[in-house]
Design goal:
- With 88 residues, the protein is an alpha+beta fold.
- The protein has three helices and five strands.
- It has one domain.
- The longest helix is centred in the last third of the chain and has 11 residues.
Length: 88
């Protein structure tokens, strides 16, 4: 669902070589980003043609957007579009 966290759960990878088992990597869990939408190829039968691949806003991009937010600039721009009810 849009707006849901996109999570990654990765278990260790095992490699087998001549009767010996090696573990490569460890267990990892982290937040990848926020789910945006699902791509549907055929809108007439979405369940049959969906590749179940979604678009995700990556976490570092979201943090970059938040860090670059300028409250004064926002207030200046938004108030220029809003007309008080008494002036309508």
């Amino acid at each position: 669902m849009s707006g849901s966290p996109a999570l990654v759960f990765r278990d260790p990878t095992y490699e087998f070589k001549k009767e010996k088992t090696f573990t490569i990597g460890g267990k990892e869990n982290w937040v990848l980003g926020i789910f945006s939408k699902m791509r549907v190829i055929n809108t007439e039968k979405p369940d049959e043609t969906s590749m179940e691949l979604g678009y995700i806003w990556k976490g570092n991009l979201i943090l970059e957007i938040i860090d670059s937010f300028d409250e004064e600039k926002y207030e200046k721009n938004i108030t220029s579009f809003i007309t008080p009810l008494s002036l309508r």
